[in-house]
Amino acid sequence: MFTRSLPGATALTLVAAMASAAQDDITVGMALEPPNLDPTGGAAAAIDEVVYANIFEGLTRFASDGSIVPGLAESWDVSEDGTTYTFHLREGVTFHDGTAMDAEDVKFSLDRARAEDSTNAQKALFAGIESVEVADPQTVVIGLAAADGAFPFKMAWGDAVILAPETADQAATHPVGTGPFAFSEWVQGDRVEIARNDSYWGEPAALASATFKFISDPNAAFAALMSGELDAFPIFPAPETLVQFDANPMFRVMVGSTEGETILAMNNAAGPLADVRVRKAIAHAINRMEIVDGAMHGYGTPIGTHFAPHNPDYVDLTGQSAFDPDAAKALLDEAGQTDLKLRLALPPPSYARRGGEIVAAQLRNVGIETEISNLEWAQWLEQVFKGKDFDLTIVSHTEPADINIYARPDYYFQYDNPDFQALMTELEATADPAARSDILKTAQQMIADDYVNGFLFQLAKTGVANSKIEGLWENAPTQANDLTAVRWTD
Question: What is the DSSP letter of 410?
């Protein structure tokens, strides 16, 4: 074999260059593939997990600690009566196709989201908007029907990101945003690829590219991390194997909190479940810790209402629906439902599939039989979320501070309580933090009293990453894999 040696200085220079060239790509695992890539036109959390803060941005955004910080708006003013918000947009922002982002795009996006024919999954975020006016290319004036101290919070959701009218229709398959990464390719059934946006208005991303790879099987996810096929899995689907990663210096295990209230949702308008006694019986039939231990290997915090335990306004109401099978049987007898059979529809996540088997056994112990159907995510969205064709289902609601969904009579669990709806209207018009706290505590108690759903546990964020990666979110204040601060270290 013929070889040629390099001069000493040249060899040293080459070695130094190779050493200083830190890795600048990452492959991130996700358990679920998004049904589309438009966060303003779909309810699946997996959409935001790919595009939030990476491809799309809003007027405001969630920081890693859950605080609301400026996004495409560098600042905003609020009128004395709290009904007018004036957002001042950043200069020099462009979409990934090179066109300028200005106030007209903001008006288009908000008007589109609140339109009568809007497919936005969170139209309630925009219900209070009466007008969106363009004062000049960098200034948007939004008029509200009533004072809303939470409006900057609402504008931080993925459902409120800014799109251009020229490319909005293609967002589902080829999203064009303003973020630090631009869409590259979607190989359906396998992965989505994004690349650094070199024309980004803010701090450029350290990563040149990123791939979101979809692996639903927990065993395959474990193998992909161990083999190096994946660099990180921020919401790892096999918590039982975390101890193996924790003992391996090649990996870092991240255990944090999420906004994911995991519930046994009940169709409040469906036959026997319209009776609060039946819903209360189901709540008392559930042993939360058995579900947390059996389905999540101990990762998760029991909840007694639809509110995150890490929120300062949280009320611990788990005792109100404590595990009490005798009480459950008595309630079913009182309601004349001693031979009850219900349908339990389960989406793909392991917390649902594993938890569903445990819940079915617990319900059987009090005399309730369940017919389990395992649905793919698209089926669940169509049949359960949209079609309301179910009795029971298990799902994590990962949207932040979303107790207001109980004020929507047409929401999939079909809870219709005018008193709760009035309470949420009052909350929207209240700016004083202490008063808002009191209202939120009352709201938690009200849905617990009505046993709207079986409240199970707060989903923990259990992630695994290569130990040389920094900047991944440990907690999940919203449903996102924000890569804007992610980098490799030496």
Answer: T
The confidence band for 326, taking pLDDT boundaries of 50, 70 and 90, is very high
Q: Are 481 and 250 in contact (CB under 8 A)?
A: no
Structural contact between residues 181 and 54, judged by C-beta atoms closer than 8 angstroms: yes
Q: Which domains does the chain have, with CATH numbers?
A: 25-31+174-256+461-488 (3.40.190.10), 57-164 (3.90.76.10), 259-460 (3.10.105.10)
Question: pLDDT at residue 10 above 60?
Answer: no
State if pTM tops 0.85: no
Beta strands 454-466; 301-302: pairing state: antiparallel
Q: 350 falls in which pLDDT band (50, 70, 90)?
A: confident
Tell me if 416 sits within 8 A of 409, measured CB to CB.
yes
Alpha helix ranges (H) inside 320-373 = 325-334, 350-364
Residue 334 DSSP SS3: helix
Q: Is the pLDDT of residue 16 over 80?
A: no
Alpha helices in 135-275 (DSSP H): 151-154, 218-227, 242-246
Q: Residue 129: what are its φ and ψ, rounded to 5°? A: -80, 125
Strands (E), 93-196: 129-136, 139-144, 181-187, 191-196
Rounded average pLDDT over 97-118 = 97
